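Hello,

Our lab assistant flagged a job as stuck in the queue for most of the afternoon. It eventually completed. Since we weren't sure the result was trustworthy after the delay, we are filing this so someone can double-check. Below is the sequence as submitted and the structure that was eventually returned. Let us know if re-running is recommended.
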Amino acid sequence: MKEKILVTGGNGFLGSFVVPKLKERGYEVISPSSKEYDLRKEENVGRMFEDIMPDIVIHMAVDGGGIGYMREHPASVFYNNMMMNALMVDASVKHKIKKFVGIGTAGSYPKFTPVPFKEEDLWKGYPEEIIAPYSLPKLMMLVHSQGAREQYKLNAIHLLLINLYGERDDFDPKSSHVVPALVRKFESAITEGKDSVEIWGTGSASREFLYAGDAADGILLAMGRYNKPEPVNLGSGMEVSIKSLAGKIASITGFKGKIVWDSSKPDGQLRRCLDVSRAYSEFGFRAQVDLDEGLRRTIEWYKANKDKID
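-- returned structure --
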């Protein structure tokens, strides 16, 4: 019998890739909604573990979004993620699960980390301030899970994911990240006949993007093969400027107008790109979908579904 796996956040964007892949491999997967169990409350988390009795936990549930969402909800983002993460690790210890897979973020790296980011650099400074209410609770989950490994022998691992994108992403302009936000902007401009699109920042900042299907593959590989306390970067290892990204999305959508950069809005962290060698050497993960192909898949999905989600 394969293990029973509890996936928090399994009904979200990344979960829509992870859960089917787990089921394809024969696992019993249970992914309850936040309406069933409020993970910010100890009694609800305890009840969830008692009801499900999982062997393995993949903890992906978050309260997060793009820069605009972070600026509007810093206190609640910090509180909600701190509570969820701490209670999930604690319950995993109490219920003696076989393995805890914590999904962290590359946003936890210090603001001025040398590129490419190496896992050893994680504690060498403070994260980019706007996303700190989200990224610091992720760091605390790493500390908590490492402590639980040492004190209670919990087999806990921690994966640092770079910016994800793909089909079924969050295209809500109030909470979306950069790729779905740009896809929606350009598609809307085409539909409305606009000759220009305004984008936050200067476009000079750079990011690394990982197709969500690849991220799901990496999570499953780590779940099966990695059992060490050190965190592991999960990314593509390819860096692209926001200006170049916008140009790619404009080209694929067919937008031929002008791109206007609003330099009064923040760029966020100047550069973000990971050293992905540890993931390959430890459990054989390497991203398969390049950015152009991943963007085409994302844009095609949005075009086919925008009437349902707008």
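-- support follow-up --
The delay was a queue issue, not a problem with the job. The result is valid. The mean pLDDT is 96. The first helix runs from residue 15 to 24.
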